[in-house]
Each structure stands twice: as C-alpha cells, then as structure tokens.
Amino acid sequence: MSAENETKKAKDRSSLPFSGIKVLSFTQIGQGPAAVQNFADFGADVIKIERPGTGAFERTWSGPDAFREGISYFFLSLNRNQKSLTVDLKSEKGKKIIYRLVEGADVLVENYRPGVMQKLGLGYDELSKINPRLIYCATNGFGSSGPWRDRPGQDLILQCFTGMASMNGQAGDPPIPCGMSAVDFNASSLLSFATATALFQRERTGRGQYVETSLLESAVSLQTDVFFYFLNGWDVTKRAKANITSYFAAPYGIYKTADGYIAMSLNPISRLRKVIDAPGLAKFADDDALRRREEIAEVIAEILAKQKTAYWIDLFGKADIWCGPVNDYHQFVNEPQFQASKITMPIQHPILGEVQHIRPLVRLGEVPLDQIPRVPPPQLGEHTDEILQGLGMSQEEIRDLREEQVV
Q1: Are 58 and 207 members of one domain?
Q2: Same domain, yes or no, for 356 and 321?
Q3: pLDDT (tens digit per residue) in 113-124
Q4: Are 311 and 198 contained in the same domain?
Q5: Which residues contact 98 (CB under 8 A, 6 or more apart)?
Q6: In this structure, what DSSP letter does residue 244 have?
Q7: Which domain CATH number covers 15?
Q8: Is the N or the C terminus of the chain less surrounded, counting Cβ atoms within 10 Å?
Q9: Beta carbons within 8 Å of 203's beta carbon, 6+ residues apart
Q10: Interval 394-403: pLDDT, tens
C-alpha cells in the first residue's frame, strides 16, 4: 500500500479501540516510547513533545550504530503512528502551549527522572488542576522514593541491581545479563496496562489519576516466580555446574547437539527413558530430578551430543517431549512458525522507502492486523504547525514562536 493510502487510512481511526484518546508523550529512549506506541498503534492521537533543534534522545542514538540517511533505526522502531511537536519547555510561552494541549488530553506519559516535570511546572498536581480527567503516567528507574530515587536507571543497571544477572549462567560464571533490553520493554507493557486500567476506571468515576511504574518494578516482575520462592524461604540463588537453570529440575536447560543446541523443558525422567537410549538414566527416578539434577544433566548431555538438533526435535516432538531448537536470529526468521505468525509489517518511509517494523504483538478479534495504522515515525517537528493551528493559533503567531525559538 502506498504512503498516501496509509496516511489516508491513519486519519480514519474511528474503528480502533483508542480512537478519540489524546496522548501527550514526554518520553525518550525505550520504555516510554514503547508504551506510547502501543496506544498509537490502536488508534490514539499521540503527540510527541520534543526539544526544538535536537529532538528526543533516541533520534541521535542507536545501539549498533544503525543509522541510514542520518535516521536512527532505534527511533524508527518505537515512534510510528505519532505526531511530533517541538516546544521549549523552559520558556513561559512553551509552557502555555502545553497547558492548552493538556486541556483536551486524556493521557500524559513521561519518563524523566523523578522531579524533572515538577520543576518545569508540568507535574501532576499542576496539570490535574487544568484537567481533572487527565491520566498522568510516570515511569522511571528506581521509583519516586528511596535513596536511589535520583540515580539514572537503565536496563543493564536494573538487571544487575535486582539480582537478575546473578541468576544467569553456570556456577563459577560471572553475572550474565540478558542479551536484550528485557527490563525496558516489560516496563512499557506494565505502563500500557496501568494506563488502560486507569482509562477504564475513569469511565466509572469521571476522574483522572496519577499512574507510576519503574524499571525496578519491571525487573522484579520478570522474576516473579523465582523471587517469590526466595522471599518465602527457598534459596534458589545457587547456580548449577551444568548448563541448566538455577532452580528447575533436570533436564531443564540447554544442551549441545552434534550441530548446535537444543532446549529441554520440564519432562519426567521416566518419559525420557522411553524415548532416548541412555542406560545411565535407569538409576534415576522422577523424584530425583531436582536433588540429582546435575548428574542427570550430564547423562542427558552425553547422549544428545551424538545426534543433530533436527533429529532430536523430530523424535521428541512425536513423543510430546517439551523441547525446542536454540536459534539465532538468522535461523528464527527462517522458521516456518515465524512466517506463520506474521511478526513483521512493512511501513513506507518518505526517505528510506520500505522499513520492516515489528507489528503490535497482541491480537484483538475486532481489530484485524490490516487495520493497524502504518504511518512512519515523524520527522522532528513535522506536525508543529498542524498542532498549533488546532489550538487556534494563526500562521503569524506560529511564525513569531519560531523566530523566538519557542517551537
């Protein structure tokens, strides 16, 4: 579909769940933009507030230095279906623009350090007086209280701070962090859920409210079961020597095959004995699976190394043994299941042409995937005139604001 047709479709969002919901986004980097994009994908009118001249941080940064035509692929991944308004938040005229936008907004999302928005005169106490129905969502590193409140929060730091990295790998390994920004994007999911919950409650009460989460809470959320065990008397922090997880029973873990690796999940030893020819398993009963897990893992590892991954996947699949191949990204995108899941959706960019985006990773029966808007992330300040005109400003007033570098 052409960019013109996609833009036309994006203007007709009346059938989408968040149609009519207006969101002001004071977000940057990962967790905030990812949360806001969830609402934009399902019909919300999202205005991204950015600094004049430089814009949001993610416009100038990309993890693997992935830029094309000066455009950050990190920015592209998290800011589709949105508008960009540039405003100097430190100027009085800039604040007045925000106050006018707040009057008609449903949701405001920010992920600055605690206290920054308050210093700008844009905290919840100030803005809720302008619009009592406003749902004000804040997400940060360590929460709004405590000795680490004002420290910078970032995915790796929180993985390590909350013990997550210490749970990965084998006994004797250094702490091993997750290979992607799991804490950031789980935080975005928590924030999206909390915001949707607050919108639902507002339908009953008519009132907005303050909503908050943090990377610390996100990291704990990812460890819910294992941390629960720990809090209630089970010390699950001792990692195994074998390449199995620190607290599940054998054979749970990753094993070398003749040409790669295979992941084994929760499987009774008695069932495994019926499928693989491993005489060494005969001495183990199902209730040995945790107490003697490293011995069991060694026996299983020896036999799995003798055949290729595909052989084991086929054999175990027929016997309902829980397992899966250990893919890299090259292998994952060539899996028939990846193709069947239709994970990607192409979006036409005015400069880059077709860019493959990851579609919204939820599916609603009443919202077919082809109804999701496919508008590329905005150029910096692309919608400034449109938004200000919507507030009733004349071209002359907007020109004066540009000359004063307010927008």
Answers
A1: yes
A2: no
A3: 999 999 999 999
A4: no
A5: 24, 49, 87, 89, 122
A6: B
A7: 3.40.50.10540
A8: N
A9: none
A10: 999 999 999 9
